[in-house]
Amino acid sequence: MEYYLKIQHESTFGCLPENAMVASRVMDNKGLTLVALLVFSGLSCTSGGESGVCVAGEIDCECNAGLCVVGGICVGNVCLEEPEPTSSESDSDLDSGESGDGDGDSGDGDGDSGDGDGDDDSGDGDGDGDGDEGNCEAGETWCDGICVDTSIDLEHCGSCGHACEVVDGNGACSEGVCAPTLGNCVATGEPLVSCSEACAAQGKVCAAGGCGGRTLTWHGNLDSCNSFIGSAGGGPCSLPTEPVTNYYRCCCGEQ
Predict the structure, then answer these.
(1) What is the DSSP letter of 248?
(2) Measured between alpha carbons, how far is 175 from 242 in angstroms, rounded to an integer?
(3) Pairwise CA distance, residues 208 & 180, whole Å
(4) Distance, CA of 153 to CA of 108 (rounded, Å)
(5) Mean of the pLDDT values across residues 225-251?
């Protein structure tokens, strides 16, 4: 009786250990079906994990749904090592599609996304909308790495770096000018020092009624003056003309 043996391709069984025995059907020419044990030799795994186990996606093993591990490429449902890049590929930014400088970014070869100018910003000074100097909105000015409105910004009032004083929680920048605030504590004495003189001594000018309607405030002692505890007084900058309490503060603005 003649038999013929139909042996499926290795990929059907996966990667098998050496001398593995696999059951297969053997059919004779009369259609009778027999079961034979086939001994496979020389089919041991060459890679992909533990000896005798071929992990899908590993090199020299079957592809895993068409995918392979890093450094591998699926060819004919088998993972092969990916070939080295050829000299026709311009730089090391092969997989990014970026303009190449070898540092993995689209920049200038300095390893960051910036402009190579040694500062900490990520811009490149080209006015292309990525936060560069000169790319501020209308009415804004570039100060200390940010765009600010110098007409109202307390830290950059009127110009970069010109900060307004905040006294007793009060302080503002309006139209690029710092609002007046209460000046230093002044002790009453003989003769009394007017608010014009007191503010001038502090490098400022008296602002009559400029501190919420106040030209000066009166305080019973130095502690209350330092704590801004007292009573308000209005009037011209020639005040005070006579003492009301022991200390006072005058409303002073910038010259």
Answers:
(1) E
(2) 36
(3) 10
(4) 35
(5) 96
Whether the upstream peptide bond of residue 83 has omega within 30° of 0, thus cis, is: no
State which of 179, 194, 210 marks the end of a domain: 179
Runs of H (alpha helix) within the chain: 10-13, 195-201, 222-226
| pTM recorded for the entire structure | 0.48
Tell me the two tokens of residue 243: 């003492």
CA nearest to 170, candidates 134, 212, 128? 212
Pick the range with the lowest mean pLDDT from 113-117, 163-167, 196-200, 248-252.
Answer: 113-117
Q: Domain of residue 166: give its range.
A: 137-179
Cα angle for residues 178, 249, 252 (degrees, 5° grid): 25
Question: 38-89 pLDDT, tens per residue?
Answer: 444 334 444 444 445 788 889 989 999 889 988 888 998 999 998 877 655 4
Q: Say if residues 123 and 132 touch (Cβ distance below 8 Å).
A: yes
**pLDDT-based confidence at residue 132 (cuts at 50, 70, 90):** low
Beta bridge partners of 186: 248
d(CA 180, CA 48): 77
How many domains does the chain contain in total? Answer: 4
Half-sphere exposure of 216 (CA within 13 A, CB side): 31
Could you tell me the two tokens for 58?
């590993």
Phi-psi region of 15 (alpha: psi -120 to 50; beta: other; left: phi over 0): beta
> Which uninterrupted H or E stretch holds 81?
strand 78-81
Residues 205 and 229 in one domain: yes
The pLDDT value given to residue 93: 46
pLDDT of 135: 86
243-252 per-residue burial string, b: 16 or more CB within 10 A, e: under 16:
ebbbbbbbbb
Strand-pair partners of 142: 147
